[in-house]
């Protein structure tokens, strides 16, 4: 069993940039780009804060998910958006080569290296979600996504949820909400490559009312998540997680 835990952070939806050669495709898409459909507002700020506080590597990307969706597998229908799905095969390959693979490969290589050094990797993908989707209010402040078939991921998320409940009892923390951790995504891809005792793939989902809300909300959720993640990692190093 791996002796040491190594935290690794990623942020797939950190920005809504469209590189100049592709801007012609997004002439009518300004509102979509600025909305949650184009990126995860507040996610990169939070990820950078966590990386600094916990002194851990962060792999982030700032091109819009509407250009190419870094959190979907090759062949997934949502890999390209309505703005890019009509591109030619070679244009799509260009997008994959310049934006998709560099981000995903850097993370996969880092996980590989840490595991080769005998470390257990805890990968936390930092995301945010819109408080209201299609008129429905989302019923959570924080979501912790994992694969329920991976016992260590479940244990880790339960412990994190417990720490949050102690430090901030009113916060609504839900597991595998608003999405299922086992659905298609980067962590799901990496789980297929690395064994469950060596790789834990967790996605943190933060309500944008906090992550991209008033400065006071942003700061308090950042501090809370840094403190509780540090606490759960300290516990994880000393246990058989
Ligand atoms: Zn996201």
Fold and architecture overview:
The mean pLDDT is 95. This protein is 40% helix and 17% strand. The chain has 7 helices and 8 strands. Helix 4 links the parallel strand 6 and strand 7. Helix 2 crosses helix 7 and helix 4 packs across helix 7. The chain starts with a strand and ends with a helix. The protein is globular and about 50 Å long. It is of the alpha/beta class and 241 residues long. The strands form 2 sheets. The chain has a 6-stranded mixed sheet with strand order 2-1-3-8-6-7, with helices on both faces. The chain has a two-stranded antiparallel ribbon with strand order 4-5. The chain binds zinc ion. Zinc ion binds next to loops.
What is the residue-mean pLDDT, rounded to a whole number? 95
Cofactors, ions and other ligands in the entry: zinc ion
The radius of gyration is 18 Å
**Secondary-structure content class:** alpha/beta
Main pleated sheet: 6 strands, mixed
**Tally of DSSP helical segments:** 7
Give a topology summary.
Layout: E1 4-11, H1 30-34, H2 43-54, E2 58-60, H3 89-116, E3 119-129, E4 132-133, E5 136-137, E6 142-145, H4 151-167, E7 173-175, H5 186-193, E8 199-207, H6 208-211, H7 215-237
Parallel strand pairs: 1-2, 1-3, 3-8, 6-7
Antiparallel strand pairs: 4-5, 6-8
Helix pairs in contact: 2-7, 4-7
